[in-house]
Amino acid sequence: MAPLDPDEFADVTRARVAVEREALRLSILNGGNDWEAEVVSASYLMAKADREMAAGSDDWERANTAFHRAMVSACGSHWLLNVRDKLQTVAERYRRASVGITRSRRDLGAEHAAIAEAVLARDVDLACRLTEAHCSKTQEELRSGA
Questions:
Q1: How many CB atoms lie within 10 A of CB 20?
Q2: For tag attachment on the chain, is the N or C end more exposed, with fewer CB atoms within 10 Å?
Q3: CA distance 14 to 17
Q4: Do residues 139 and 8 lie in contact, with contact meaning Cβ atoms separated by under 8 Å?
Q5: Do 72 and 24 form a contact (C-beta atoms < 8 A)?
Q6: Tell me: the pLDDT tens digits for 25-55?
């Protein structure tokens, strides 16, 4: 397995945030009741995982993936979702490593709850800002712990 490269992760994060923001924007504008229900369900499961599981564990990672995927699932673009999923897969490797490298004082539950609240309120600007900050914090933690 290739060694972790903080510069590569910064690049992955930059690309992921760009794609995620657009997919999130489109989902908030286009999502209907079924999408909102998916977001509520994923948010509930994420909150439960944030309380009960160690970040970086397989179960937590599955909840995190489902949470972030639900937020963008109504974007209407197969290509945005495909690229986003690939970037999230790469980011997961770094995120798992950052859990072991850093002693984070982040409140991931609060971060996830704030994102979900902004998404369900259909506040595009806030949801995008919170998502960008959320993704960037992991990248910053890895860099500071490397």
A1: 25
A2: N
A3: 5
A4: no
A5: yes
A6: 999 999 999 999 999 999 999 999 999 988 7
- Residue of 50, 29, 28 whose CA lies nearest to 39: 28
The one-letter amino acid code at 5 reads: D
Q: 13, 9, 28: which is closest to 128 by C-alpha?
A: 28
Comparing 138 with 52, the larger pLDDT belongs to 52
The answer to whether the predicted template modeling score (pTM) of the entire model surpasses 0.70 is: yes
Using CA atoms, how far apart are residues 19 and 141, in angstroms rounded to an integer?
A: 21
Q: Around 66, how many Cα atoms within 13 Å sit in the side-chain half-sphere?
A: 18
| 80 C-beta neighbours (distance < 10 Å), count | 18
Question: Minimum mean pLDDT among 40-49, 80-89, 111-120, 136-145: which range?
Answer: 136-145
Contact 22, 74 (CB under 8 A): no
Distance between CA atoms of 21 and 124, rounded to whole angstroms? 9
C-alpha–C-alpha distance, residues 65 and 96, integer Å: 13
pLDDT number for residue 103: 47
Instruction: Give the closest residue to 77 by CA, choosing from 7, 138, 17, 29.
Output: 29
Residue of 103, 7, 6 lying closest to 55 (CA atoms):
103
